[in-house]
Amino acid sequence: MRALAREALALVCAMILIVCARDAAAQRTVTVWHPYRGAEQQAFDQVLQAFERAHPGVSVTTLAVPFDAYAAKLEAAIPRGNGPDLFVDAHERIPSYLARRIITSADTAIARVGSDLEPIALEAVQSGSERYGVPLALKCLALFVDEELWERAGRPSLDSLESIARARAALPPSAYPLVYYASNAYFHSAIVHALGGQLFDPQRGTYAFDGSPAIESLTFVQRLLADRVIPPEVDGASVTPYFRSGRAMTVISGPWLVGELGGGRRYRVVVLPRVRDGGRVMSPFVTVEVAFLASNARAPELANELAAYLASPAAARVRATVGRQVVATQSVWSEPELANDAVLAAFRRAASRGRVMPTHNNMRLSWEPANQAIRRALRDPRATRVAIDQGRRRYEDASRPLPAKRSPLPLQLALGLIALAIALRSVQRARDPDFRAAVKRSMPAYAYVTHAVVIVALLVVLPLVLGATTSLYAGRDGALEYVGGANYWDIITARGGSLFASGTFYAVLLVTVLWTVANLALHVSIGVVLALVLSRPLLKLRAVYRVLLIIPWAVPSYVTALAWKGIFHRQTGAMNAILSSLGVEPISWFAQFSTAFAANVVTNTWLGFPFMMVVTIGALAAIPKDLYEAAEVDGATPWQQFRHITLPLLRPTLLPAVSMGAVWTFNQFNVIFLVSGGEPDGATEILVTEAYRWAFTRQAQYGYAAAYAVLIFGVLVLGTRLLERLTLGKQGGSK
Amino acid sequence: MNTTRKGPFWLEPLSHFVLIVAVAFALYPVLWVISLALDGVQRPVARAIPWPESPSLDNFRAILFARGGGGEWLFVRQLTNSIVISAATALTAIAIATPAAYALARFPDFVGAKGGTKALLATQMFPGVASAVPLYMLLDKLRLLDTRSGLVLVYATTAVPFAIFQLRGAFETIPKDLEEAAMVDGATRFQAFVKVVLPAARPALAVTALFAFMSAWNEFILAATFLSRESAFTLPVALQRHVGEYDAAWGKFAAGSIIVSVPVMALFYALQKNLVGGLTSGGVKG
To answer: What is the DSSP string of A25-66?
Structure first.
């Protein structure tokens, strides 16, 4: 009996062990995050499936993260153990990820495949004595040539931009010898490099887009524009339609263009040409796509193994043939399938002539100033030098030395005193019999509000307060140190510069106020006029009109903001199509403040008038009809009725709607960010978008951004107070 | 303006003219998005009249029938997520806001009412740029990260301040006599609130719920930050994936936009009768 029991026990134990062992095997999961789409995603999934097949009991979970949220999501998730084991990103983020301690050394993974990886790619992931991330693929620019146009132009030499420019005469006026995103620093840098300059000095870690190479590169492109070698105002999105419709003999673009071209046109890809005849060749920046090993990984061993597998010849073959990647694994390039792939081979040659994107932390700060300098110089050639100087100033602004660290003691002391005062005051009040009676009377109300108070305090107020507290800290890339009020001081004094220079708090505030006033005026006037028309008793089709007119309110605002941006596009926008059908010259909407601001206002007016219209319709319906009848009996004209009955009775309902609208418009992020994006030169930026830029595009200076947010809050509180006092005064006077 | 029957003869045509111009303005960008979605080309082309160059339904097909890594039908999963999250947000926001708004309307002088209202107003003025990271940490602490409930909680609480203002205004317009009559008949205040006041405030409740629903339906930054499984994504997050750093599949984005917009527009129109009555009774007073 006992033996049986012992045996049974042993059996149970064995079963548990087996189940556990199987569970442990089944539980081996590795999580991968990536930003891929389309063919690249397809290839990546295929590779991961092959990895699963080769490793029974291992499952790979993937997440394709939208590009906008990628970095923020990684930086939030990994330190708290919610992140992936492995993720794919560009090598230039290494210093930032290292500063946040979200990646670990990839030396062991590289040791398995290292000798097979491109040397420049390995160099790119080196930081100090260790290598971070396994290089997967290289991305850079190359020259796409439309065979048909090239033949029509008499097969001109593609050896230099100057020789390409000479094809102008041989091409029809609607076609251009060269099309590329000329106003973008990533594209422009290839020219700067050929002329002996650079955007950024990686050795010294400083901005370098100035001096004679910068001026020479800009005057060169200005001449291409003036000679109609390149079309005006091309952005990243409008290159493809030029090529697809056969209006671009050559195009400078990256590997992503291949996927968009389809089979419509016969083309080939070659390396970038020289700039001048006999001069140096253009040298594009090379970005290395890397598989990063996350710190805090749950399956670090598996992640290591997977990273090595991704770079192995078997995986690289799939990524190259299916995903069209210029893989960093050398041995697959000798295989016939890839060796005969002219497009991929051309990109590989282009990468070998390129220069690896510097990983210095300040490199990422150089883009915005350089972009603005280039755009301004191309718009206005006389301002080339001014534009370059302005770029440098902007860079210095963004890379300002951090304020000195301070002891948080005064703050703690002040907070302690405030807490003490509050405590004393509450004790004092608790003793006051009147107050106790009032609290007792309030008891029934508390039964209704307590839960709301707790939840709102925890999930709305607390995060906001925590966010606001960040404004007392400074640091880049998440390493924050207490600096007291230094952020505020820097913002308010414009760091010693002119207070109303472009980009200062005051200049942006002025634009924001102008923006709010213009929008509210349009919202209210359009809304009220439409409501009055819709409220006419005998109007036909009223319901139809009303339904159609509230459409803008029902569509998600980020969709319509992007639609409006498209409408105002210089080349492909409907607005210019309408103008040109009326015989008016097309307008570069985002090239000067007035039109860019107008484009923003039109978009936001479109979004906001239905709200005011609906509020007004309701308010009109609430006005008693007998008032008008009495007025008519007294012989009042329609205008007098409007002036003395409608307007005064609309005011009480409209005022709260207007003050709410003012707050919303003041903080309207989507429209500014998506329509003008601050163009030109950040002139149409409002305070909220400026705060966003400090937080997300200028090395994550969260403290500075938070100080902006607190100042916005202060301005709004003061502003609404003022508005209230003004309107209350008026109301009192009119009564 | 003159709301009497008479008026000069040109008033009627003028009204229609004004309305038609306004409707054209309101519809133009929408038609543009539709034409882009129906076009096989992924890039916009300059045209004054929004009409697709080569009409096809490919973009819609690509969005509707996308499959995830595990072979699951992503669109249906994400649509379900969006509906569940938005509906739960609307219900939660209403559940939190209604009693609080009632208390503010009926006991306007309770201790803390003034301060509370000011604090609520303040939350509307503080830009949200800075609060995403603290929220992430909070949800992580509450073990609600990467769950629908966590997202619902965040959306609902951000919708609560505006909902309270809306509903307080609505409750203020409901005559006190109604509840007092019920209380004379023996109902408690709570019973009177549930049985008398709430039914009377139905239009405002519907509109407030609609706003909470819409804000949750359209949000994508927090959703993309908090959710870590593709099958858990909401529709706007999935939609955002079509816009990349250097390139964007505009046709697919437009088709996705239309699909995302249709349900919320349908809801909007179903409730639009309430919109007029429900909104005006609200209003924010500090």
So the answer is: HHTEEEEEEE---HHHHHHHHHHHHHHHHHSTTEEEEEEE--
**Domains of chain B by range and CATH?**
11-56 (no CATH), 63-280 (1.10.3720.10)
Chain B: residue whose CA lies nearest to A619: B280
Query: What is the ipTM score, two decimals?
Result: 0.85
Closest to A200 measured CA to CA, from A365, A28, A421:
A365
The alpha-carbon gap from B89 to the nearest alpha carbon of chain A, in Å, equals 14
Query: Which residues does chain A have within 8 Å of residue B23's beta carbon, measured at their own beta carbons?
Result: 545, 548-549
Q: Which of B215, B99, B79 is nearest to B151 (CA)?
A: B215
Cβ–Cβ gap A695/B100 under 8 Å: no
**DSSP 8-state secondary structure symbol assigned to residue A586:** P
A261: Cβ–Cβ under 8 A, 6 or more apart, which residues?
A: A144, A240, A243, A244, A267
Contacts of A566 in chain B (CB under 8 A): 32, 36, 44, 250
**Which residues of chain B make contact with A577, given a CB cutoff of 8 A?**
46-48
What token pair was written down for A596?
A: 């860019």
User: Phi/psi zone of residue A228: left (φ > 0), alpha (ψ -120 to 50 degrees), beta?
Assistant: left
Asked if A480 and A409 count as a contact pair (C-beta separation under 8 A), the reply is: no
Look at A549 and B26 and tell me if their CB atoms are within 8 Å: yes
Nearest to A201 by CA among A421, A363, A388: A363
**What pLDDT tens digit does each residue of chain B (286 aa) get?**
444 445 677 888 888 999 999 999 999 988 888 888 887 665 556 666 777 777 778 788 877 877 665 566 778 888 999 999 999 999 999 999 999 999 998 888 888 888 888 888 888 888 776 677 778 878 888 888 888 888 898 899 888 988 998 888 888 888 888 888 888 888 888 898 988 889 988 888 998 899 899 889 988 878 887 888 777 888 888 887 776 655 667 778 888 888 888 888 888 888 877 777 666 554 444 3
User: For A654-671, what is the HEC assignment?
Assistant: HHHHHHHHHHHHHCCHHH
Q: A644: nearest CA in chain B?
A: B1
Residue B277 in tokens: 């009555």
Three-state DSSP state, A408: coil
Contact between B140 and A534 using a beta-carbon 8 Å cutoff? no
Instruction: Report how far Cα B83 is from the mean position of its chain's Cα atoms.
Output: 12
Interchain CB distance below 8 Å, B230 and A562? no
- DSSP conformational letter for B39: B
**CA neighbor of A612 nearest in space, from A516, A524, A517:** A524
A577 reaches B (C-beta below 8 A): yes
Report, in angstroms and rounded to the nearest whole number, the Rg of chain B calculated over CA atoms. 23
**B56 to chain A nearest CA, in Å?**
16
Is residue B43 classed as helix, strand or coil in its secondary structure?
A: coil
Distance from CA of A25 to the nearest CA of B (A): 20
Does A629 contact chain B (CB < 8 Å)? Answer: yes
Distance (Å, whole) CA A327 – CA A351: 11
Question: Cβ contacts (< 8 Å) between A475 and chain B: which residues?
Answer: none
> How, if at all, do strands A248-253 and A176-179 pair?
parallel
A525 in B contact zone (CB under 8 Å): no
Looking at beta carbons, which residues of chain A come within 8 Å of B244? 35, 37, 67, 256
Beta-strand pair A28-34/A58-64 = parallel
Q: What is the C-alpha to C-alpha distance for residues A1 and B121, in angstroms, rounded to an integer?
A: 77
- Point out the residue among B25, B153, B247 whose CB comes nearest to the CB of A256: B247
Scanning B194-213 for CB atoms below 8 A from A yields none
3-state secondary structure of A287: strand
Which of A64, A72, A642 has its CB closest to that of B241? A64
Q: Are A366 and A209 in contact (CB under 8 A)?
A: yes
Residue A680 preceded by cis peptide, ω within 30: yes
